[in-house]
Design a protein that fits this description.
By secondary structure, this protein is of the alpha+beta class. 44% of the residues lie in helices and 14% in strands.
Amino acid sequence: MGTSYFTPATFQFLRDLELHNDREWFQANKQRYVDDVQEPALEFIIDFAPELAKISSHFRADARVVGGSLFRIHRDTRFAKDKTPYKTNTGVQFRHELAKDAHAPGFYVHIQPGECFVGVGLWRPETKVAYAIREQIAAEPAAWKRASRSKKFTATYSLGGESLIRPPRGFDPDDPVIEDLKRKDFIASTRLTQKAVTSRSFLDDYATMCRDAAPFMAFLCRAVGVPF
């Protein structure tokens, strides 16, 4: 039957946090965060590990409280105009084993009232890495189209992110895939409902979404020189 990891209480905590985004309120409600957000996310990460291993042995489901797949709830406000101390979402990223040493694509889940989605790919890679991906797309346009335009992929995902205004230096403006070569982000996503996230089938559904993204992720891994 499956397990319901995230519940309406998860979303209620995040809504309440948005209304009371200060340290005093959070400390008074920290156990709610642990019970309704952190622990369900860590259990999801643990249970997803064997499913992830079936897709690729090079990505990690790391259930550590700090430094693992679960993003911290605390915001880095050092250079931000918005000084509210906490994120009003919870995020889980299944990173590549080489992510600390190289830019590599990842699998991502974002949970936020009214704004849940699954993301795959590489967001805003450094210039050198972006050029490596563009070169791979230009060299293998048919493989890129199979990875990013297949019926299975587009039935779930839409390519997104920002693009350059002009073609990147060194690429033919008339290249048939020039719009893809102008991308600054090599990501795709699909929106989710709260009902989908709180369902007992969510782990299996998410595993299916990740499997459907495997050719896209494999192409990006090859482009940046990491194994898939």
